[in-house]
């Protein structure tokens, strides 16, 4: 082999060795770069997830700013007025059978009364105060004398603003009072009383409960009172109605369970049945009792028992009623923190 050939071969061998080293070095650097890219992508994904969670927490925090965890309420006098009216004595009549007490009573001045005592509630939360005043307007201005027991009369136009609600309410109550006073004098009634009071019972998580007591007396042996409840979804800013809780298809099953509870009530009180099963139906009034994990249905006077027994409450435990609730309310009694809960 010539000296030139040997030199060329040696150069080729050295060049090949050099290229292999560079290729190996480049390959190693490429692998390191790929690992760095994978690590950076992982960190970027982690940062994005943290950012999404942070945004969700901020949105939730902003939402919770509108959900007062403990309501601070204050009673507000909406309309309060009373008067006593004196009627002239009845004319004594000649009657040989009339005893002295009867004759004396007919010559005494008779006195009657009229009393309005309407107490609302302010919570400091405007949308919630609007809900409370909507109920007050519906109960006291539409049908304050119960002239429409079937609730078929057209519903009043309730103003949107809270200030307008208060103005309309006071105006209409003043007119009702004047009308009742005229009836009292014309018919010489014993008395007329109209009372309304709303109280804050308590709050459990996003559920707030208000109790409404109304009392009506228009002469006679006794008046009629009623207790109703507003179960307020603080998150949804709505009142939970019976239709919200129970699908129509499940009403009959719930009535069957309550009928069994009514039989137990009759046995406990030793009363005779006051109603037949075919006439038994769910009442409008109910409250969600989170403390005792049950839903309580409040039946009005005379619905299930004589007047002397008052309103009758029948309850179904959470286990009994849960299968019949709408899915939205299946989680009502989860172990959530009780906040200012008194019910």
From TrEMBL:
Which Pfam families would you find in this protein's record? Answer: DUF3298
UniProt keywords (A-Z) are: Coiled coil
Q: Could you tell me the superkingdom of the organism this chain comes from?
A: Bacteria
| Keyword Coiled coil included in the entry's annotation | yes
**InterPro entries in the record:** DUF3298, PdaC/RsiV-like_sf
Give the coiled coil ranges: 23-64
Domain (DUF3298): residue spans on this chain? 248-319
Respond yes or no to whether keyword Coiled coil is given for this record.
Answer: yes
The protein here is known as: DUF3298 domain-containing protein
